[in-house]
Amino acid sequence: MAWRFALMIDPVDAADARADYADTFTALDPAAPALTVGELSTQRGDGIFESIGVIDSHPQEVAAHLERLAHSARLCDLPTPNLDQWRAAVALAAAQCGAGEAVIKLILSRGVEHGPAPTAWVTAAEASDFTRARTEGIRVVTLDRGYALDAPAHAPWLLLGAKTLSYAVNMAALREANRRGADDAIFLSSDGYVLEAPTASLILRRGDTFVTPAPNGGILHGTTQLSLFEHLDAQGYETVYATIPAESLGAADAAWLVSSVRLAAPITAVDDAPMPVDAALTASMNAYLLSPRD
Ligand code: PLP
To answer: What is the per-residue pLDDT across 80-120, written as a single tens digit (0 to 9) for each?
Structure first.
């Protein structure tokens, strides 16, 4: 992967409105070591992040990502991020991305053990080529995530719905999917409802209606799903949030995993049962997702 940029941020209070945040940023060599050994994000995964897609130096849906960063910070009792400061950092990173697809990551960590807290940084790197997933599609398997649909309501300390840096479970689910001959996974709640993929949201098509799992079931509210629903609404389709039983997955007319960098990947099979693919609709979704979006 080709790194493009890295910037350390000295987080300022959310109420500290400034005309310029330049003196709170330190540019780094992205190939050189930068974190201290006491970093709690690396020791415990104690922090939050965002991955923003960048097309030809235009960062996509920055406001939605910053809102979700603030939401994750609230759930994790991290200081409220100063969104103007983060927006300024994203603009600096995007300016270094050049032509083609890239990814900007925002990281807000609990901080350093016995040291400065919180710590924060931004990186930019070239994105992988996802043409194949977007055009040929992906096979998925369903995997039990082990929590009931109502877990976030009575166990908020599980931080379900926050985009935390603790992604070891998500990565393990992807490895399990690969072991089962699939490319990706769809998590199910322990009581049998459809949730999300380890790094993407699920959208189903039923006739002219597009359905996605309701975000109160302990899943991330995907910025790509939100943006696509707006686009589909404008085209006259109906879009709904629903509680989706796992048994109904196979009855969908089409399904996609959508996320900020891979964009819309059509699902070709769920647990080895073939799923119909609408190539033309998928292509138009990805054309929209690749267009500049704010
Ligand atoms: N759900 C999970 C668990 C994710 O990690 C992601 C993105 O990484 C998504 C959903 C999709 O979110 P977005 O569309 O904002 O990339």
So the answer is: 999 999 999 999 999 999 999 999 999 999 999 999 999 99
Mean pLDDT of the chain: 97
Specify the length of the chain in residues.
294
Considering the domain boundaries, does residue 294 fall inside one? no
In angstroms, what is the span from residue 130 Cα to ligand 1's centroid? 16
Predicted pLDDT of residue 217: 86
From the alpha carbon of 258, which atom of ligand 1 is closest?
14
- pLDDT tier at 122, thresholds 50, 70, 90: very high
- Would the pTM of this model clear 0.90, i.e. be above it? yes
Summarised one tens digit per residue, pLDDT across range 156-205 is 999 999 999 999 999 999 999 999 999 999 999 999 999 999 999 999 99
Task: Please indicate, yes or no, whether residues 14 and 151 belong to a single structural domain of this protein.
Answer: no
Number of domains in the chain: 2
Residues 103 and 162 in one domain: no
**Does residue 8 sit in the same domain as residue 78?**
yes
Q: Is residue 140 part of a domain?
A: yes
Range of the domain at 159: 131-289
Q: Ligand 1: which of 61, 199, 226, 261 to mutate, judged by most atoms within 8 Å of the beta carbon?
A: 199
Q: Residue 110: which residues within 8 A CB-CB, separation 6 or more?
A: 40, 41, 44, 46, 47, 78, 117, 118
Ligand 1 touching residue 259 (CB < 6 A): yes
Instruction: Examine the domain organization and report whether 121 and 173 are in the same domain.
Output: no
**Are residues 122 and 159 located together in one domain of the fold?**
no
Q: Do 244 and 285 fall into the same domain?
A: yes
